[in-house]
């Protein structure tokens, strides 16, 4: 039976690059704590993150619906119709549970089963809340249509005890207070994914558990910036890191560094995005057009009107369009494409 010695692998992970990530996150967390009390100002960031997180985490697994239906489902303004929409609604509710009650949800096997049960509560599927009843594999489909097995998780009969041991060993490592939880959490998630305890929903559960563990340790940035979206936007790197770190897992000779480094990089980006957006939202002297201007100026590369609106909650589409027209007129920005593919870039020739 597999046990999980977090301490044995911990010191190997204190590389200069990882320590740099840790330092940045701890510094960002100080700013985050300063502005987090301004709940009214940040409330719209929370609503945007909920929609993005629900959409992105499901999209990674090929579970999709239209943008309009997604927003209505997340805001609970309609009932889910299709199988995909029912699973999206389940994710919405589990995400809300974690946001609102993370302090009361310990990382334990029975809690993981309850969260997984709720993930499938609208679908009526029997897989919800139950560990896999048959062995499964992690496979990929190659361009020629053939299927290749990337990883063989633990067999079904070992799964309950493996998850119990993983939770117990993780909590024991956390309770020692000698190791940074920002390293322990990705290690926990990597092991969870290698166990692959469910017949379906392992990826989504891993992302929900990432948020739960981070929130319980005081790293709440995922409430304001969608960590799931950042993972979805870098999906290829995510799978590469997962593949590298799972190699030789069964022999307990795997290298956690690629996955830990990837996840810490995601958290750094989330805090950086939060810092930038919060600075704009809390600057009461800046006009709405100026906020739109700064968002575009601070973006390297193209940005769409929809993305501008995501970063400027509380500013109407009419105001955004008026500001874009003025910036184009003054030659401060450049318009690219047309119709639904229209985007904008800052004219850096004027800098």
From TrEMBL:
Binding site for ATP: 200-207, 238-239, 248
Record-linked InterPro entries: Fido, Fido-like_dom_sf, Fido_containing, WH-like_DNA-bd_sf
GO terms, molecular function: ATP binding
Keywords: ATP-binding, Nucleotide-binding
Active site feature: 196
Residue ranges of domain Fido in the record: 107-265
Annotated Gene3D superfamilies: Fido-like domain (1.10.3290.10), Winged helix-like DNA-binding domain superfamily/Winged helix DNA-binding domain (1.10.10.10)
UniProt-listed PANTHER family: FIDO DOMAIN-CONTAINING PROTEIN, FIDO DOMAIN-CONTAINING PROTEIN DDB_G0283145
Protein name in UniProt: Fic family protein
Organism whose genome encodes this protein: Dorea formicigenerans
